[in-house]
C-alpha cells in the first residue's frame, strides 16, 4: 500500500514540485496551502507523514504542529522553514516534530529524511506489536509431523505465503491453527508484525476497540487515543482467531475493512488505511453458520479466498511419537526440568487415545506428567487420561450411532461441551483447555445451551 503524504505549504510552486517528486516515488500525495485546509484533511483522513511549512497565510506551523500532536499523538511531521532559527528548530522538535529542514529544499536531502522518519515509524509499530507477544507465542513457529495430512498442510502454507490473499484456517480446537498462521506470516517476507486477536476472548463491547482502536472520550475509560490491531499490523499480518464468534455488527465493519482496506476508530471519523494481510481461523463451519443466520455470507466468502484445513490429532496418529517428544522438550524448558524420555508403553497409550482437545490437550497432559515425574522416564501411570470420558466422545461406536447423524451442529456442540464439563468435574479452566476456547466463550455456551455444572 502507498504511503500517504500531506503537504501543507503556501508556496504553490514548491508545493506542486514536492507533490510531483513524491508521487514519482510511489506516494499518495495531497497538497494544501493553509492551516484550516490541513486540519480539514487530517480530520477526514489518516496520513503516514506531514510536510509542514512554518509561515502560512492563516497561522504558523509551530502552533498547528502543537494542535496536530495533541489531536493525533504519534503523527509523523517534518517541519519546513526559510528561517535559519536554531530556537525555532528546538521548539519544533520539543512540540513533536520528527525532524526539521530548512529552505531552499534540496529534494534528495528531504527524501532521505522522509525515508528515515517512515522507517522509524514502521519500527515503532513493530516494537509495540512485539511487546504484546509472550514467550509461548514466540515458540509457536514449528509445525511437527510427517504424515501425508501434515505434508499437505505444509505445501498449502508455502503457496499461501507467496500471496496476499485472505486465508481461512479451519480445524478442531487445539489443532494448531495459530501455528499455521504464524508460519504463513514468517514465510511471507512481510516487514510488519504478526498481530493475533482472539475474537472469543474479548467481550463484544470491547472487541471493536481492540480491532480498530478508539479516540479519546469514545466511551467511559477511554482516556487517550489508542491504535487498534489493524493499525499495529500495518505491513504485516493480523490473525483473527475464533472468527466464527464475531458479533454481527462487527462482521459488517470487518467486511468493509477487508473490501476497502479502510476503517474508522471507535468514536472517530478519520479514514484510516491498513494493508495488513488478514488470516482468520475457526473451529466452526462458517457456511453452516451462514445458513443458521449467525454469520454474513459475503464475509464468509471474503475470508475464504484461500482455505487450509488442519486435521485432528486422531486423524494423524502416526505423528504422535514425534509430536510428543517435541512437546516434552518444550515443556521441560518452560518448567526448568531436564527433558524426560517417554517409554514405548507411554507412546502406545498416547496413540490409543482419541484426543478431543488435540495438540493443546496433549500438551496439558504431558505438562502434568513432567510435573509429577520423579525419575527420568514418563510412564503410562503419569498420563492422566480418562478412557471413559473424552475418548468415548470420539469413538467409532458413537460416530456410527444413526441418531447422531440426525443432530444439528448446536446439539452436537452442546453434548460435547457437557461431556467435557462432566469429565473435568465442572472445572472451567480445564474445560477451556480441552475445548480450546476462552472462559467468556465457555460461559456464553453454558448459558446458550443451558448446560449443567457437576
TrEMBL record:
SUPFAM superfamilies (UniProt xref): CheY-like, Homeodomain-like, P-loop containing nucleoside triphosphate hydrolases
Keyword ATP-binding appears in the UniProt entry: yes
Record's keyword terms, sorted: ATP-binding, Nucleotide-binding, Phosphoprotein, Transcription, Transcription regulation
Domain Sigma-54 factor interaction: 143-371
GO biological process, one term: regulation of DNA-templated transcription
Domain Response regulatory: 4-118
GO molecular function, one term: sequence-specific DNA binding
Pfam name, any one: Sigma54_activat
PROSITE patterns: RESPONSE_REGULATORY (PS50110), SIGMA54_INTERACT_1 (PS00675), SIGMA54_INTERACT_4 (PS50045)
Alphabetized Gene3D superfamilies for the sequence: 1.10.8.60, 3.40.50.2300, Homeodomain-like, P-loop containing nucleotide triphosphate hydrolases
Residue numbers of 4-aspartylphosphate PTMs: 53
PANTHER family reported for this sequence: SIGMA L-DEPENDENT TRANSCRIPTIONAL REGULATOR YQIR-RELATED, TRANSCRIPTIONAL REGULATORY PROTEIN
Protein name: Sigma-54-dependent Fis family transcriptional regulator
Native organism: Solemya velesiana gill symbiont
Amino acid at each position: 500500500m502507498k504511503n500517504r503524504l500531506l503537504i501543507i505549504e503556501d508556496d504553490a510552486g514548491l508545493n506542486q514540485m514536492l507533490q510531483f517528486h513524491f508521487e514519482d516515488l510511489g506516494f499518495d500525495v495531497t497538497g494544501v496551502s493553509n492551516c484550516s485546509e490541513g486540519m480539514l484533511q487530517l480530520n477526514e483522513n489518516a496520513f503516514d507523514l506531514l510536510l509542514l511549512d512554518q509561515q502560512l497565510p492563516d497561522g504558523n506551523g509551530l502552533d498547528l504542529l502543537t494542535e496536530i500532536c495533541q489531536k493525533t499523538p504519534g503523527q509523523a511531521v517534518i517541519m519546513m522553514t526559510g528561517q535559519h532559527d536554531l530556537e525555532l528548530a528546538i521548539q519544533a522538535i520539543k512540540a513533536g516534530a520528527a525532524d526539521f529542514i530548512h529552505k531552499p529544499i534540496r529534494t534528495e536531502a528531504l527524501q532521505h529524511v522522509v525515508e528515515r522518519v517512515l522507517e522509524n515509524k514502521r519500527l515503532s509499530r513493530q516494537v509495540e506489536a512485539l511487546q504484546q507477544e509472550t514467550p509461548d507465542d514466540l515458540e509457536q513457529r514449528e509445525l511437527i509431523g510427517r504424515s501425508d495430512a501434515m505434508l499437505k498442510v505444509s505445501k498449502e502454507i508455502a503457496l499461501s505465503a507467496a500471496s496476499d490473499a485472505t486465508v481461512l484456517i479451519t480445524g478442531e480446537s487445539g489443532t494448531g491453527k495459530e501455528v499455521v498462521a504464524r508460519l504463513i506470516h514468517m514465510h511471507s517476507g512481510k516487514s510488519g508484525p504478526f498481530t493475533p486477536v482472539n475474537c472469543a476472548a474479548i467481550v463484544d463491547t470491547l472487541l471493536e476497540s481492540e480491532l480498530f482502536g478508539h479516540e479519546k472520550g469514545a466511551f467511559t475509560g477511554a482516556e487517550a487515543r489508542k491504535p487498534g490491531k489493524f493499525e499495529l499490523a500495518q505491513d504485516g499480518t493480523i490473525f483473527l482467531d475464533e472468527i466464527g464468534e464475531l458479533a454481527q455488527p462487527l462482521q459488517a465493519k470487518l467486511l468493509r475493512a477487508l473490501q476497502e482496506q479502510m476503517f474508522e476508530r471507535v468514536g472517530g471519523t478519520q479514514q484510516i488505511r491498513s494493508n495488513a494481510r488478514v488470516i482468520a481461523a475457526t473451529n466452526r463451519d462458517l457456511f453452516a453458520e451462514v445458513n443458521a443466520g449467525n454469520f454474513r455470507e459475503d464475509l464468509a466468502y471474503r475470508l475464504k479466498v484461500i482455505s487450509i484445513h488442519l486435521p485432528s490429532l486422531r486423524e494423524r496418529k502416526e505423528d504422535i511419537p514425534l509430536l510428543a517428544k517435541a512437546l516434552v522438550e518444550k515443556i521441560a524448558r518452560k518448567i526448568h526440568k531436564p527433558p524426560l524420555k517417554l517409554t514405548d508403553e507411554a507412546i502406545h497409550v498416547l496413540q490409543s487415545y482419541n484426543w478431543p482437545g488435540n495438540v493443546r490437550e496433549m500438551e496439558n497432559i504431558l505438562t502434568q506428567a513432567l510435573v509429577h515425574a520423579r525419575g527420568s522416564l514418563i510412564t503410562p501411570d503419569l498420563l492422566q487420561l480418562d478412557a471413559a470420558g473424552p475418548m468415548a466422545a470420539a469413538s467409532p461406536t458413537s460416530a456410527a450411532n444413526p441418531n447422531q447423524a440426525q443432530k444439528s451442529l448446536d446439539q452436537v456442540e452442546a453434548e460435547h461441551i457437557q461431556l467435557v464439563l462432566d469429565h473435568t468435574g465442572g472445572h472451567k479452566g480445564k474445560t477451556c483447555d480441552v475445548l480450546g476456547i476462552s472462559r467468556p466463550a465457555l460461559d456464553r455456551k453454558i448459558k446458550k445451551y443451558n448446560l449443567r455444572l457437576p
